[in-house]
Design goal:
It is a single chain. α2 packs parallel to α5 and α7 packs parallel to α10. The protein is α/β, with parallel strands linked by helices. Helix content is 63%, strand content 10%. The strands form 3 sheets. A 6-stranded mixed beta sheet has the order 6-9-10-3-11-12, with helices on both faces. It has a 4-stranded antiparallel beta sheet with strand order 2-1-4-5, with helices on one face. It has a domain of 312 residues: ABC transporter type 1, transmembrane domain (ABC transporter transmembrane region fold). It has 20 helices and 12 strands. The site of adenosine-5'-diphosphate has 11 residues, from α11.
Length: 588
């Protein structure tokens, strides 16, 4: 069995304070709820007292007895109504609070830098939005108020009992140490296992999501047995934690029951003896027995709710952790929007590392005039993708600068800059929806005609029309139902529609049938026309056509120039051409 660690709520007061910040937005309703809790607790205490009082006066006249009975009934009715009302209102408060937290969390997730997501599993983040929020919601719905009213009831009851009979109270309280140690033993375990359960559930979800979205890879590499094994391990961890969490929390009501019966026996015996000596009345014994029965109930509630409460605090803490992650660095104070750009692009002595001390890019400089194509070539890991990530300002250079139309890119607001950059990447991002909507993702306000025109230019119109539902054909997230090449045509259509001035192109490495390949090449030439393009190139055709080829090795530029120039110097590029690049069919 894998060794399990114990995650904890790291900062109780901080987390509670933050929850309060959310709750306090409904302060007025909370005050009303608070008053209702007071009322229900007070009437809850009054009931048993009145009961004992009435029993001791059973020999009174009929009208006194009737009055007492009406009072008793009234007390119980008010108790129930007040309880119902505070529960009802609290559900409203809870749901509005959780709604707000969920909104904030989702919004914040979209403000985080790319680097945050590369470090985490999607499933784990999703579990914060779903599981953790659900725990907070559950707790706010009921436990929060219950814990509060239990504490009130407990204190009130203790006071009343002491007032009626200190001796009998002392005898009743002998069960408290038993209760304390029993509960301590149980909660130490349940708390731990509930948190583990939470964490393992997140990991399991993350893993399922990962393997499902990576199904193709799993199948291609025949990784099914390995995936099953890894799943089994996570599944077993979850089972282990969930099993023990349930087992230990199941002890709580049993323990309470035993203690309840014990205290009843103690009160009946001790109270009976005291009554025989004339110290107390039958009514007092009844009141005490009733209190003792209820005495463990608030403690029972406290204990029962404690687990939900714990996992909710832990959940809330995880949510706040995300909320406190730094957003993508704010745009510089003087950063402005850009309305249009020509597309002149200059990397000036750019150095960059993902971590502190590494240098993924070293002193990279190149210059593209508007409309030119730069082909980035070099072995895997050379830093080609990193160049494009810096261009889109997913990261900023550690040294040097990226200059667009004569302006340092840091002086341009990120969203504004990204609006002028288009992407055609290897794995096209498709979402569930029609082909039309998927193309329209490039420009949300485009008309149907504009969408179709873009599809025509992208050579995608033909295949789309042949689909049974044409542009209304629904795609799944992984785009099953259309081919790899067709997906690329769609992403070209999307980019054409968006009409960016700068284009980032990650040429597909996978081979595609000749006809589609020609269509893609044609569409790409149309797309690149008049736009400054940075192409991570794998096809010799594309490279040859580029205005400039930048050869990267280990993050540094080793050669730079046109195809002919670079062949002539017979260096790294010439070697690569000879060994690596594929000659693909020339189009007309
Ligand atoms: P290429 O596109 O030429 O294959 P990349 O730009 O993707 O190369 O990667 C360059 C180097 O940077 C590689 O060593 C890679 O491991 C590292 N790298 C890429 N992305 C990240 C990241 N998000 N965090 C840390 N290191 C990264």
């Amino acid at each position: 069995m894998a060794k399990l660690q114990t995650p904890r709520v790291k900062n109780w007061t901080g987390t509670l304070k933050k929850i309060w910040q959310y709750l306090s937005r409904q302060k007025r309703l909370l005050i009303v709820i608070f008053l209702m809790v007071l009322l229900s607790s007070a009437t809850g205490l009054l009931g048993p007292y009145l009961l004992g009082f009435t029993i001791d006066r059973l020999d009174s006249d009929a009208s006194t007895l009737t009055l007492l009975l009406v009072l008793l009934a009234g007390t119980y009715v008010i108790h129930s109504v007040a309880m119902w009302l505070h529960n009802y209102w609290m559900i409203g408060v809870a749901q509005r609070t959780v709604y707000q937290m969920r909104t904030d969390l989702f919004r914040h997730l979209h403000m985080l830098p790319i680097s945050y997501f590369t470090k985490r599993q999607h499933g784990e983040l999703m579990s914060r939005l779903s599981n953790d929020m659900e725990n907070v919601s559950q707790t706010l719905n009921s436990s929060f108020i219950q814990v509060f009213s239990s504490i009130l009831t407990f204190i009130g009851m203790l006071g009343l009992m002491l007032w009626i009979s200190p001796l009998l109270t002392a005898i009743t309280l002998t069960i408290i140490p038993l209760l304390y140690f029993g509960m301590k033993w149980i909660t130490a375990r349940t708390g731990r296992y509930f948190k583990q359960q939470q964490r393992h559930l997140g990991e399991l979800n993350g893993y399922v999501e990962e393997t499902l979205s990576g199904q193709r890879i799993v199948k291609t590499f025949s990784q099914e047995p390995k995936v099953q094994l890894a799943f089994k391990e996570r599944n077993e961890q979850l089972k282990h934690a969930a099993y023990w969490a349930q087992v230990y929390s199941g002890f709580i009501p049993k323990l309470m029951n035993v203690l309840n019966n014990m205290s009843f026996a103690v009160i009946a015996t001790a109270g009976g003896l005291m009554a025989l000596k004339g110290g107390i009345t039958i009514g007092v014994i009844i009141t005490f027995a009733e209190y003792a029965r209820q005495f463990t109930r608030p403690l029972n509630d406290l204990a029962n709710q404690f687990n939900t409460f714990l996992s909710a605090i832990a959940g809330a803490e995880r949510v706040f952790e995300v909320l406190e992650e730094d957003e993508e660095a704010k745009d510089e104070q003087d950063a402005t929007q850009i309305v249009s750009i020509h597309g002149e692009l200059r990397f000036e002595h750019v150095s960059f590392g993902y971590g502190e001390d590494e240098h993924t890019l070293r002193d990279v400089s190149f210059h593209a005039r508007p409309g030119q194509t730069i082909a980035l070539v070099g072995p895997t890991g050379a830093g080609k993708t990193t160049v494009t990530q810096l261009l889109a300002r997913f990261y900023d250079p550690d040294e040097g600068s990226i200059v667009i139309d004569g302006r340092d890119s840091r002086s341009i607001q990120r969203t504004s800059l990204r609006q002028h950059i288009g992407y055609v990447l290897q794995d096209t991002f498709l979402f569930e929806g029609s082909i039309r909507d998927n193309i329209r993702y490039g420009k949300l306000d485009a008309t149907d005609e504009q969408v179709e025109r873009a599809a025509q230019e992208a050579n995608a119109h033909g295949f789309i029309q042949k689909l049974p539902q044409g542009y209304d054909t629904l795609l799944t997230q992984d785009g099953s139902g259309i081919s790899q090449g067709q997906k690329q045509l769609l992403s070209i259509a999307r980019a054409l529609l968006a009409d960016p001035s700068i284009l980032i192109l990650d040429e597909a490495t996978s081979s595609i049938d000749t006809i589609t390949e020609i269509k893609i090449q044609e569409a790409l030439i149309r797309l690149m026309k008049g736009r400054t393009s940075i192409v991570i190139a794998h096809r010799l055709n594309t490279i040859r056509r580029a205005d400039q080829i930048v050869v990267l090795q280990d993050g540094a530029i080793v050669e730079q120039g046109s195809h002919q120039e670079l062949l002539a110097i017979e260096g790294a590029y010439a070697d690569m051409v000879a060994s690596q690049f594929t000659e693909k069919p020339q189009h007309a």
